[in-house]
Structure prediction request, 464 residues.
Amino acid sequence: MSGLPWRRHGAAAIALWLAIGLSAPVLPAQRMDRARFPAFVDSVVAAAIQGGTAAAGVTVAVVLGRDTLVLKPYGYADLEFDVPTPDGAIYEIGSVTKQFTAAAILLLQADGKLSVDDDLTRYLPDYPTQGRHITIRRLLNHTSGIKGYTEMPEFGAMMTLPLPRDSLVALFSRQPFDFEPGENEVYNNSAFFLLGLIIEKASGMSYADFVQQRLFAPIGMSSSRYCDEQAIQKRRAHGYDTGPRGLIVKRYLDQTWPYSAGSLCSTAGDLIAWNRALHGGRVLSPASYREMISPGSLNDGTPIRYGMGIGLTNIAGHRAISHGGGINGYLSFSAYFPDDDAIMVVLINTAGPVSPDALTATFAAALLGDVKAAAVALDRPVSDYAGTYTGVGRGAPTVAIVSADSTGALQLAVGKGRPQRATYLGGDRFERNNALLIFERSNGKVTRVRFDTGGGHYVLTRQP
Prediction:
């Protein structure tokens, strides 16, 4: 559970993307004909779920312009009774919840009820900040430094218990900060839990009621709601985890705890409606929307590839505004491609090996074209960068090892992961699996690297 990530318009947006995107020339690949695309999706999903042995079921939605190319369920909503996934299947969406929480905060700012630059103690006066100034903005973009509760072993003992919410706040608020606010970006569910409490304090409504009345109802998201383990829900896709011998019924999690970081349930159709409304100007004012999708920044002004509850990394080389979710029994991914006027949603009722992010990237590469960075010749020796770099991480320090592969190209291994080659982009910048490596020098020598994954921006120091 601690590994789950609820565990992620116009010229102005294009300009801001050029500031954070890859600067190397790009070469577009050929796009698939629209008429062939639905059959392609069928084949990809069938191979991925392997008849319900790798994942129970999947729902895929792909919209291009005004055309819905795919809105289709696959596999099973219930493996024990062999129930096929129905149209309009309801899934827990995990951290895709975060963009709804961010939108709620921005609506309250527009209402004059709060400012994203307010200190959190204005709404939670008893929160022990340990002498630090923590703005709502820092909560929204994972730069607060507050200890993440989903990475704490102690949380495992309470995740099934319906305790008061302040018992969880008491657990993580006593912990030392992982870093000084604004010095790094580390994905943080504690921050989004606190945002839910702020929404309730500023609005005078429960988080569930606020989201229902101000977001779901106006858009017509009639199948979306705050998840409830006890309620009988028609078309609910039952969740499964992966055990040593295959799929198992998902481990229990009381919905008290994901809360505003990950407790919403929805359908692929509703999430298409949400993306159309959010990115079509029907949820937020232009100023609020621009604030939501603009990259946050660290104390030194370095931009990160995350806005407010939303990720800003490329998919198959295309600009995307997206977020994934992972919670017991479910994985999800929702992406909007502003340059292509496309929306893709993948929902899976299995927390296992089938990745909705990877499926989305496969669909995007086929339909929109796979845009790859053109090769840039490395004009300096890999030995300039080789070494071990350490710094903060999510739940544990990050250890990154940079070395040369058998061809002399730079490769990176993070933690216990296998080394993987990185593409040189010029100017001490590399890319590996959509993560950026930005090396920094002091007196001409590389002394640290910024490891930017989109959901994290870790400043790592080179060890002697």
Summary: The chain has eleven helices and 24 strands. Residues 219 and 277 are 7 Å apart (CA to CA). The radius of gyration is 22 Å.
